[in-house]
Specification:
single chain; alpha/beta; 7 strands; binds guanosine-5'-triphosphate; binds magnesium ion
Length: 202
């Protein structure tokens, strides 16, 4: 996929602020600091479209980035950041639930740190996604920090911990661009599927 255009389309908390639906929302969820914004910038080849933070827990809205006027990345506030108050966490949860209750075609990418065993919150998130039946992919970030052997080892652990099959897990690095093409091809495939549906309806 060639990235011709990428823009911040909306910072939204409420339904009325969501931008009009395109083919698909690729929704990025994961702990604060896991690399959600870095993945967006790397995939879209924009250095600072999504704000990366040395200041974790800063994202407080759903950030919609439109790509090629065809689809969105939706950057969710990072979960599990200790300095965010309980009230704020509840507000995030409600904000995310409102979005999930809105019928839009979406796929979830849950980001986890490739170096660690998935934590309690990662487990809960993936169990939740599975239970609501939204298609999802686990993206293991910061893979540049691991050797090939370590990746093979972590792959086994993560697949086992989250009960994944091989096609549900991709190792990624925003630093080296590892698997950038694979992830973009996956989105292109989803868009194709959507176009196919449109044609079938005509
Ligand atoms: P929040 O917006 O706070 O939820 O964080 P985030 O998930 O958007 O993380 P962000 O992209 O801001 O990255 C956090 C830190 O990890 C930054 O210092 C990044 O440079 C670093 N980082 C992100 N991805 C990678 C990666 O693939 N490799 C390495 N080595 N560092 C990374
Ligand atoms: Mg971010």
């Amino acid at each position: 996929m060639i990235i011709k255009k990428a823009d911040l389309a909306a910072l939204a908390a409420w339904k009325s602020q969501y931008p009009p639906e395109l083919t698909i929302d690729i929704v990025l969820a994961g702990r604060s600091n896991v690399g959600k914004s870095s993945l967006i910038n790397r995939l879209l080849n924009r250095k600072a479209l999504a704000r990366t933070s040395s200041n974790p827990g800063k994202t407080r809205t759903l950030n919609f980035y439109s790509v090629n006027d065809a689809w969105y990345f939706v950057d969710l506030p990072g979960y599990g950041y200790a300095k965010v108050s309980l009230e704020e966490r509840e507000a995030f949860k409600k904000m995310v639930n409102r979005y999930l209750e809105t019928p839009r075609r979406r796929e979830f990418w849950q980001l986890i740190d490739a170096r660690h065993k998935p934590g309690e919150l990662d487990q809960q998130m993936s169990a939740y996604l599975r239970s609501v039946g939204i298609p999802y992919l686990i993206v293991a970030t910061k893979a540049d920090k691991l050797s090939k052997n370590q990746i093979a080892k972590q792959k086994k652990i993560i697949m086992q911990e989250l009960a994944l099959n091989e096609s549900e897990l991709v190792f990624f690095s925003a630093t080296t661009g590892l698997n950038r093409d694979l992830l973009l091809a996956r989105i292109a495939e989803q868009i194709e599927k959507d176009n196919g549906k449109e044609k079938a309806r005509d």
